[in-house]
Design brief:
This is Glycosyltransferase family 29 (Sialyltransferase). By secondary structure, the chain is an alpha/beta fold. Helix content is 38%, strand content 14%. A seven-stranded parallel β-sheet has the order 5-4-3-2-1-6-7. Helix 7 links the parallel strand 4 and strand 5. The longest helix has 14 residues.
């Protein structure tokens, strides 16, 4: 698919054409299976902690959206995969240099050609987004979608860093929990329930 056909498919909301640009979900899950995964969220509270070395020594480091990294001591420096739901400025793309981009947002109009043609690109299915939204009773955040997806990969361990469910707001902006469309209380409960039942999932 060339850029013009991509833009047309995006405009017409041709999901089948856009999905043809993606690696199959089974291939993505196989690439994460059995690995020690660090999923790094954007909570401001992570800046006060010292998890950088643990993050960077994980088998797979996944970050979210623009992934601010104030210091390597708190955030590490590696980005293997980037779970994305916003337009990524070129400066952030060069800074993060992710090995693979996962487009998680149902808003396909935000998807850019550079992301869609990137190596190993993955488009999260709309059906998966809607199923999780129904379970939570609200639009899921990029973070909770990434957690749910990575757990399905059957990792050896999935450790969450920088997840306080908006208690300290986000490094990516100044909005509070009431100003975003997600139900962070429901997401926190969802994660805690799964962590209690699944020893592979832990919150740092």
């Amino acid at each position: 698919m060339n850029r013009l056909r991509f833009l047309l498919a995006r405009t017409l909301r041709d999901e089948a054409a856009l999905a043809a640009l993606s690696v199959p979900q089974a291939e993505l899950l196989a690439a994460a299976a059995g690995r020690d995964i660090a999923l790094v969220g954007n909570a401001r509270s992570l800046s006060t902690q010292h998890h950088g070395a643990a993050i960077d020594t994980s088998g797979l480091v996944v970050r979210i959206n623009r992934a601010p990294m104030p210091a390597p001591e708190s955030h590490g420096s590696r980005t293997d995969w980037l779970a994305l739901a916003v337009r990524l400025p070129d400066a952030d793309r060069q800074r993060l240099h992710p090995g693979r981009i996962l487009w998680m947002s149902p808003k396909r109009k935000r998807l850019d050609w550079g992301t869609a043609r990137s190596n190993g690109f993955y488009l999260h299915p709309l059906a998966d987004y809607r199923a999780l939204a129904a379970e939570l009773g609200a639009p899921p955040s990029t973070g909770i979608m990434a957690i749910e997806l990575l757990l399905r990969a059957q990792p050896a361990r999935l450790t969450l860093y920088g997840f306080d469910f908006f208690a300290s707001k986000s490094l990516s902006g100044s909005r509070n929990a009431a100003q975003v469309p997600h139900d962070f209380a429901a997401e926190a409960e969802w994660v805690r329930a799964r962590a209690a039942a699944d020893p592979r999932l832990r919150i740092a």
